[in-house]
Amino acid sequence: MAVPVHLSDAHWETLHPALLEAGTYAVDPEPCGPPWRPWEEIGAREAAARGIFAPSGNLPDGPAGTVLLAPGDMRGTGLIAERTEGYCLGINGSGGPNLACLGCGLPVGSRIDDCGHWQLVRLLERAVVRLPGPPERPVLSWAELFADGGPGHRLSGFQDIPAGVALAHVVVAAEGGPVEVAPGPVGELLGPSLAALLPPGEGALRLDLAGPGRGEPPAEIVLVPVHPQTGAMWRPSGGAVAVPLEAGLWAELAFPPHRTRLPAVGGLPTGVERDDPLPPHPPTRFRPSGKAFRHTLARTPAVREPWLRKIHDLVR
User: Fold this and answer.
1) pTM to 2 decimals?
2) What Cα–Cα distance (Å) separates residue 252 from each residue in 144, 145, 148, 246, 293?
3) Residues 6+ apart with CB under 8 A from 270
């Protein structure tokens, strides 16, 4: 599987589900875990070689290329008792690899399941040996992926994270100019944030949704789904700039779930009272994740341009 964009942020003091589905894995190309080095020590040149182009505080300097798994998929390992550091409800791997092979006793990776962290196992690249096994899951076509309305919404409670990632890509695509957001779900998702980050004015670029089953609307910037297995974007055939959006959130925008059981025509019969649940209304206005926004911008070379660096530094 492609590395989920949700890895770019987490909700503090919240128990998270497993980041990956059972039976799947992904490879994280970035360094992770201790030791942690301050930006001032790393410097802009070394950070750029790692694909980071704006100050990001302390950066992990642990191993790159770790293999991510759902915790329930692990076999043949045990916890290293003296490395079970955590915040309050689990372990977070902050002291280094906390899983050891039951056969040889060598550290092989870290289990992470504390609050404020995605539940996952990170296996060290050097500890993984690929062996023959059952065939991997076939890659679904776009039509198959969205045949039943799209991927499951396992992580639907964390939509602010993929929204923050998409917001960063839209700001980059706008090149500092105004953006007119199509009304409806896209406007509700990104409209207020774009209005706060980009200037108003004439010649605004239109932002809309495009993809399988939706076609290509008349817009200069389009939000398109990212295939969860391959990480490839759906590509428009026109001249619009494609902005990646996590497939589960894209499907929810493109094919809103039915929220009522009212008849398609007419009204309720006389004497029958409404008893279906009303649509849920959050207590506060939805906001894309600022951390995911900054994480994405910091890994975009364009952030070195003054106008974009200013936005990066502004958002918290």
Assistant:
1) 0.90
2) 16, 13, 12, 10, 20
3) none
